[in-house]
Amino acid sequence: MSLKNKILLSFMVTGVIVVFLSAIEYGNFIKIKHEIAYLEATDTIRGKCLQLRRHEKNFFLYGPSEADDETRLVYKYLNDLNELLLTHPVLNKNERPILLHELLRQYEAVFTKIESSVNIIKKQITLANMDKGLISLIESTFTDIPLKAGEFLEKNALVSPDDTLIKELKTLDADIHSLRNIGETIVNMANELDKSARGKVDGAVRTSQLAIIVLLPLFFVVGLGMLFIISNNLANGLNRLVKIVEDAGKGVFLSGSHPKLALRYERDELGILYQKFYEMENQITQRGKELETKNEELLQTRKLAAIGTLASGVAHELNNPLNNIYLSAQVLLREIGDSASPFLRKITEDVLGQTKRVKFIIGDLLEFARGRKIVPVQVDVYSLIHNAYKQIAFVTDVKQIEFTVEGDNAVISVDSEQVERVFINLFLNAVEAMKNCGVLSVRLETANGSVKIIISDTGGGIPVADIEKIFEPFFTTKDKGTGLGLAIVYNIIKKHDGDLKVECEQGKSTTFIITLPASRQKSET
What we know:
This protein is α+β, with helices and mostly antiparallel strands. It has three domains: about 5-220; about 260-370, Signal transduction histidine kinase, dimerisation/phosphotransfer (DHp) domain (Helix Hairpins); about 375-525, 2-Layer Sandwich (Heat Shock Protein 90). About 70% of the residues lie in helices and about 10% in strands. The chain has helices spanning about 5-60, 70-85, 95-125, 130-140, 145-155, 165-250, 255, 270-335, 340-370, 380-395, 415-435, 465, 485-495; strands at about 375-380, 400-405, 410-415, 435-445, 450-455, 500-505, 510-515. A hairpin with a 2-residue loop joins strand 4 and strand 5. Helix 2 packs antiparallel against helix 3, helix 3 (about 95-125) runs antiparallel to helix 6 and helix 8 packs antiparallel against helix 9.
């Protein structure tokens, strides 16, 4: 996972927690709002129930003469309570308000009955044969203490115990007790509703507080935890990268010591950085190998140049004396004629032959030392190869040599004489290595603007210890060799901006690989 994705994940987790916390708080807010609305309704019910009981007491306390206002208020609060219980959205589906509504209906029925009884008793008292003062006293007290009023009338023989008035007073007393019991139940139920509503509000508030107490620290813990993980991961990755850079400065590369380390963070930005650094080290390593190869080639070139300079000086110094010796030997051989003894004639011929051989060696030295100017011409490789093979056929036995040329022909711009000499030297060496019996094959390959000429023989190969030395001047494994043939070949190929390599399979074959440009822009020396 990339660093960007990790940060996004951290924000997403934090965001989810925030959304979750917000959802819980919003839910609690809605719940608290609902419970507060319910509490307001129950508090209103409780208040109206208390007002109902207060006006109920006033109704019985003030007597019929002053009870009209209290009666009106009692009915007003009854209507208000019934309407509130039936229409309020948070109450109309609650079980207790339904029971309360039923109690209020009972209360209203009993109160209506009491009101009717009071009116009947009031008329009966007015019609009774009693003193007006006594009637006024009975009227003002019978609603509050109906039984006392009845006992007073019986005791003073004002009314018979079987009189309708006494019965109405007893019925009124029973109804008053029933009304008061129902009213007390109503008040108790209203108090319970209010208490329950307050408990729910307190519970919702505590839940909200608990959610904040629990989720808010969790939010900070998760946020800080994700931040710590990301920063720790980043810091560890950077420290590891610093270590890798330090190792690279000491020459210890990823590709050499721990090549798989770059793949450990391949999915994030650090992984990309590791991969790029790994690729850079591979390129540096490759450049180092190329530089080492170039340095070896430069060293070889300098070595050849130094030896060439020395060889050129020695060849010039020896050339003149050898010419004199060679001419003197020719004159001596002509002068002695046939009259000389065979022994003297043989010695003179040996001097002439060895002098001629030394002159060839000095010619090779001069060729190696100064070379010749390259005069490039367009020539096809097949012609050069076949011409070179024809020339070696004149100087050595190739009857038992199987010679093949394969691959597509190509036209190259080279000094045909010098490149032909390269083929002659390599072919002669191959024939000598095969002891005039074997397979000599040439294969041509063209790619990327160059021509590759692969020359293989079945001569048994070159010893491993000698492979690195074969292009050095004066190195030879032959009894009569000068050690300059392959050195001259190497110089000619390099002058043509080409490359010469050798591959050897011990006991089976030797392969020389020549790479030449397909065309040349200008003449070179």
